[in-house]
Design brief:
Elements lengths: L1 H29 L14 E11 L9 H14 L23 E5 L12 E5 L38 E5 L3 H4 L6 E3 L11 E3 L18 H10 L37 E2 L2 E2 L19 H9 L8 H7 L1
Bound molecules: zinc ion.
The site of zinc ion (ZN) has 3 residues, from α4.
Length: 311
């Protein structure tokens, strides 16, 4: 009896040791092999983009490859402080202008590893509005824009790509306010995309006057990258954009304002990409916005996996 008890003790002891060893092994194996230390300040983060073009059957393929590339070129200027117009930034904001350090390129392989142009075209009558719940009641499966079997296109995995949908948004709503929209980090993976009307996309026709420099997409990708409008909650000086170096601003600015224009005790930074002015009146992100965007890709950030998969 005593012997058996000792034997049992020994077995339990070895089981315990084995458990400890396997646990510590597990811990080291749990880290993804490519989970590198955090991003360095000057590191350029590169994001592959897939463009889903939803054309009405009467007007197929009017969105040329060249028009799409012109938009990619705009993004690679605006997110790298290479846009020549950033020099128009007023003196008081000049030292805040940031090179966000993000570059975009058309995806070269699809989710299965097959070579692609990064541009997928579908003829369909559905509009960009079918990617948004206007009733507040729709299940995600009814956001038709994002489902091939409902006339849209299935989204590609958000941990590998930025998904941009080009689909008509203007006909029903007028141009202001709904030239495009974007889902923020943390949204449902089936709809984590940016949706843009073809007439505000890129710098080649067809284009809408005042929205012809590709800045609608710069702005909407800003939302996809977690940025909030510089005016925060419209009408409030208290609820801002959670970025320290953008002045509090009471209202959105539209059109082409002249500097200085003040609210909440300071001059508005209406030339920021995250206000709502005309394309040729916006030309800068701030260092604080850069920090907020890049936090997404750091350890624990909501787009960390996208960064790791493209490193
Ligand atoms: Zn916006």
């Amino acid at each position: 009896m005593l012997n058996k008890k000792n034997e049992l003790k020994t077995i339990v002891f070895f089981l315990f040791i084995t458990l400890i060893l396997s646990c510590s092994n597990d811990n080291s194996n749990n880290l993804p092999p490519n989970d590198e230390p955090n991003i360095t300040p000057n590191e350029i983060i590169k994001i592959p983009v897939v463009i889903h073009v939803i054309n009405p059957p009467s007007d197929p393929f009017s969105i040329s490859d060249e028009k799409i590339q012109s938009q990619i070129d705009v993004l690679n200027q605006d997110y790298r402080k290479k846009n020549p117009d950033h020099i128009k930034t007023p003196q008081e904001f000049k030292n805040l202008v940031a090179d966000v350090g993000i570059e975009f390129y058309l995806a070269e392989t699809d989710p299965y590893g097959v070579p692609t142009s990064g541009i997928i075209r579908t003829e369909s009558d559905i509009s960009g509005f079918s990617g948004k719940d206007l009733t507040g009641k729709l299940p995600i499966e009814d956001y038709k824009l994002f489902f091939t079997n409902k006339g849209g296109q299935d989204i590609w995995p958000r941990d590998k790509y930025l998904n941009i949908y080009i689909a008509s948004l203007m006909d029903k709503w007028g141009k202001l306010g709904f030239a495009g929209y974007a889902y923020s980090p943390g949204t449902d993976p089936r709809i984590d995309a940016v949706v843009i009307d073809p007439r505000v996309f890129g710098t080649l026709p067809p284009l809408e006057v005042n929205y012809d420099l590709g800045r609608t997409v710069t702005h909407e990708i800003g939302h996809w990258l977690n940025l909030i409008h510089v005016y925060g909650k419209d009408g409030s000086c208290e609820i801002g954009d959670e970025v320290a170096d953008t002045p509090n601003q009471k209202h959105q600015n539209l059109g082409a304002p002249a500097h200085p224009k003040s609210s909440c005790g300071s001059n508005d930074m209406f030339m920021n990409f995250m206000d709502r002015v005309n394309d040729n009146s916006m030309y800068m992100f701030t260092k604080g916005q850069k920090e907020r965007v890049r936090n997404l890709f750091k350890k624990g950030g909501l787009r960390r996996q996208l960064y790791l998969n493209n490193k």
